[in-house]
Amino acid sequence: MRLQFLGTGGYHPNERRHTACLLLPDHGIALDAGTGFFRVQKRLNTDTLDVFLSHAHLDHVCGLTFFLVPILNGDVRKVRIHGSKQTLDAVRSHLFDEAIFPVDPPYEWCELPEGQHVDIADGGKLSWTQLEHPGGSIGYRLDWPGHSLAYITDTTAPGNYLPFISGVDVLIHECYFPDDMGEWASKTGHSSATAVAHVAKQCGAKRLYLVHADPQHPEDDPIGMDGIRKIFPDSELAEDLLEIDF
């Protein structure tokens, strides 16, 4: 299984990190469509694309406006956008309002059925859970025989999602703040370093990749990785264009 980190920052892009987008290029699955979504076109190895949105904040959806060319060229024959009804309604009525984006993209809009999962390629399944965040957010888990991945973004750790991510092979979790700014985590609906490390340890994850870094800090380590690794050694701050196998 291959996973590519196409956008690892939060709020707005900077010279180092674009905003939220993950891609499984061989399965035709993207998680979120922030500014990093422009990179999907050259990396996708399927002629269909399923995009699963965590929520409708612009740093997670604005890239949906970037994908007309591969559709019009026939490189991709079908694009399905999945999310909650609230998220899909917001994206369709605002991001794709004619005054903002005058072309109605030929996307299929797919509301996530409550309390269920969807089947994905190679005998896998994708499931979801509600997260605490202003305006709401969704966490995703992808399971195949012998492989699993969870994507938890835009929420304050720890939360009631711990059972949902139990035993996952790869945990991708947002971490916007270092510990000395931890008070801002609960104020803004985001997470800080030590709390995320404890989540990874408590859920029994094998690997932890941190995303959604504060764009005001483009340095190598804006969140304090040494402290995180003392709690959960197999941790890494994901960078744009990182590719992993799991």
Automatic annotation (TrEMBL):
<keyword id="KW-0378">Hydrolase</keyword>
<dbReference type="InterPro" id="IPR001279">
    <property type="entry name" value="Metallo-B-lactamas"/>
</dbReference>
<dbReference type="GO" id="GO:0042781">
    <property type="term" value="F:3'-tRNA processing endoribonuclease activity"/>
</dbReference>
<dbReference type="Pfam" id="PF12706">
    <property type="entry name" value="Lactamase_B_2"/>
</dbReference>
<dbReference type="InterPro" id="IPR036866">
    <property type="entry name" value="RibonucZ/Hydroxyglut_hydro"/>
</dbReference>
<feature type="domain" description="Metallo-beta-lactamase">
    <location>
        <begin position="29"/>
        <end position="212"/>
    </location>
</feature>
<protein>
    <submittedName>
        <fullName>Ribonuclease BN</fullName>
        <ecNumber>3.1.-.-</ecNumber>
    </submittedName>
</protein>
